[in-house]
Amino acid sequence: MGEEISAALTPDEWEDFRTGDPLAVKRGGMERGSYVLARRVSDAVGELFEISDGFDTIAVPQPAAHALAALALHGQPIGFTWADVDAVEEVTSVYASEYEGFGGEHQLTWERARSAVRRIAALLPPRDG
């Protein structure tokens, strides 16, 4: 439970991505290439994510990025489970009952937490049973 999970990207990699520079992510263990190049581009259709290993390039349209994220996280140690959703829902429920009627910043915090729960749940397969 308390295992450390390293950041997916370094601060410099995030900065490259934010500024629109091609993001060269170098990670070991790749069979076909020594790096992955990822960038966000716009074309006549809309925004795309391009991912290349130096040999092949895949263009992922923005609407498909949500599905790709769900599939990439499914079953991975860095992914989410319905138990995670249930735990966060329980915490937000306790928080809401503790600060019921306070409004203001407490209401905003609760709404943000509920939004996070919905976004995480949207990445998961249907619940079993």
Brief overview:
The chain is built from 4 helices and 4 strands, in the order αββββααα. It has helices at residues 11-18, 62-73, 82-98, 104-121; strands at 23-25, 36-42, 47-52, 57-61. Strands 1-2-3-4 form a 4-stranded antiparallel sheet, with helices on one face.
Task: Write structural notes for this entry.
With 129 residues, the protein is α+β, with helices and mostly antiparallel strands. 43% of the residues lie in helices and 16% in strands. The protein contains four helices and four strands; from the N terminus they run H-E-E-E-E-H-H-H. It has helices at 11-18, 62-73, 82-98, 104-121; strands at 23-25, 36-42, 47-52, 57-61. The protein has a four-stranded antiparallel beta sheet with strand order 1-2-3-4, covered by helices on one side. A hairpin with a 4-residue loop joins strand 3 (47-52) and strand 4 (57-61). Helix 3 packs antiparallel against helix 4 (104-121). The protein starts with 10 loop residues before the first helix and ends in an 8-residue tail after the last helix. The mean pLDDT is 82.
Strand-helix topology:
Layout: H1 11-18, E1 23-25, E2 36-42, E3 47-52, E4 57-61, H2 62-73, H3 82-98, H4 104-121
Helix pairs in contact: 3-4
What would the keywords be for this entry?
129 residues; alpha+beta; four-stranded antiparallel beta sheet; elongated
